[in-house]
Each structure stands twice: as C-alpha cells, then as structure tokens.
Hints:
By secondary structure, the protein is of the alpha/beta class. It has one domain: Thiamin diphosphate (ThDP)-binding fold, Pyr/PP domains (Rossmann fold, 3-Layer(aba) Sandwich). Helices cover about 30% and strands about 15% of the residues. The protein has a nine-stranded mixed sheet, sandwiched between helices. It is globular.
Amino acid sequence: MSFIKPSFRHPSAPTNALGLTTQAYEGGISTLCAGCGHDSISASIMQAVWALNIPPHRVAKMSGIGCSSKSPNYFLNKAHGFNSVHGRMPSVTTGANVANRDLLYIGVSGDGDTASIGMGQFAHVIRRNLNMTYIVENNGCYGLTKGQDSATADEGHKSKKGKINPFESIDLVALALELGATFVARSFSGDKDQLVPLLQAAMSHKGFALLDVVSPCVTFNNHPGSTKSYDYTREHVQAGSVVDFVPMEQEITLDQIKGSTQEVALHNGDSVRLSKLNDNYDPTDRVNAIKVLHKHKSEDKLLTGLIYLEPESDNFHDILNLPETPLSQLRENTLCPGSAALSAINTGLK
C-alpha cells in the first residue's frame, strides 16, 4: 500500500491569484479513522488558505497532543510546523509569534488538549489577544486513549464503555467570550459552506480568533446497542485474540439554512441540535452574544456561526509595542544599541 500521493492533477484545475492550485496546499495522507470530522476540517483549512492567496510557506501550523493535533500533518505540507507538548501549544505559538509576526499562525487543538490540561494556557492566550487562529476540533472524547469523556462532553452522555458522564460540560465558546476574545465562532465539520468562510474571517482577523468546530468521532461514538459493535463481538465471539478494527464510516455532512435548528444524528445513535445564526444577528455586541449563547444552551441547542467580533482591538504586538519588523530579522545594532544607551537605562532605574 502506497502512502505517497500522486503528483498528477488535471491541467485545467483552478488556480488562485498566486497561480497555485489546491494541490500546493495539501499535506500527507491521513491516518485518522475513515469518516473522521477532523479530515473535513483539514480540507476546509486548505480551501480557506488557498482562497486567501496565502503562500503555504507563510503559514505556521501549531498543535499539541491528540487526534486533532495529528491533523496539521494532513494539510499545507510546505508550511512551517511545530507539534508541542500536551496543552502547551499556546505558549509555543506565543514565542514563535513574537519572533516572527509575519506568518499566519494556525493553532489546531482538541477538546482534551484545550479544555483540560491546556485550560490555563488557553485562558492566557485569549487575555493577551495573540494574533492567531485557534481551531478546536471538538468531539467530546479522548480519541487517542480509547474514548474517555473529555471536559466538553455533555452531562448525561454515555461513553463507549457505557459510563454516564456526571459532570457539566465546559463550553469553550462561552468561556472565550467571558475572557474577552475578539473573535469567537462555532461551526460543524460537515458544514463547509459555513466553515470555510468562518476560517477565512478568522485568518484575516488581527488578534485572537477562536473557532470551535464540532467534529464527530466515528470510533468512540460507536453505537453501544449494536450487534456489530466491538464490545458485542468480544462478548459473543470466541477468538484467540481480539484486534480493534476501525470500520469505514460515512462522513456526516450538513446543509443547513440560516436561522434554522437541525438535529444531526451521530454515529453512536445520539444526536446534537445545531442552531445556525440568521443574517439579522449582530456579532459586535458581546453582552448580547453571551445572552444568546446561554439561551440556546438552555434549549439544548449548539449555536453556530460568527458569534462575536471586535473589529478594532490591540493585539499582543500592539500591547507590547513591538516593532513592525519581526524580531528574528532585527540586526545587532538595533538589538544592542551600545553602552551609552545601557548607562542611560541604568541611571533611570536609580
């Protein structure tokens, strides 16, 4: 089996303003489960960056640990990349961003990587309004460690093992609004008509942009009552050994009208109610955004779309009064102004 993508593309494939086809924005072949929503998000990211006419080498892909944090390998293989420690992607991105502000920083994280071990870093990267697009591929479970509930799993949710989650979920969108994020949005992995424009808006925003994307897990949202489930097979089939096999699942897609609420069936038999904002909604009112978000949550609805936007704000570089020239490009005579300047600073501190 080959894991090398063919180089041939149709000679009439459309190009962007840079003369590049979407092939230039592709990555490696995905090793995620067939039908995983994360792959749909990767495809949307490729489409968004291509449409924005951004050269792949002007992008930095940052991630932590988890299924979601593997996905940057599957898009923009000519971009810079850093796979950091679990939950520490924001601080690594902060350091890289300060050194070179000219790149587009795309941080890809998961609900475990962000809402649990990375919660503190998530809060502070919002508070600093770092210029980056922060994408949470949110499936409510830990896919790499056999599907335990994450902090975003709904209260009362039954895991693959049959355990009921007794804890209230953490809503990362609501948290980001309360912490002062200047761009907050939510979408669904299978709704590309909504997701791609939101990604383009987030990548164009000067400051911190959160995009929480509901992304169903095809493996650990496996129907607990199915006679085709792994658990049922283990209980009813005698075998020398049991090896988990990930079945080919159909990707869940959505074509939703603005202002409507639609119930989406998940692979485990559960469902999620997605409510898409209408055109009359004002995303520049933070207080109203919080109210609308809580109203939908009280009705067991997940609000999707551009939930809040602050058009004008000071990002991290403005707050620190950093020069327009990236620090990595400053010359020695600028970084070290000489002993006279140092003496003047020392005198002022006496």
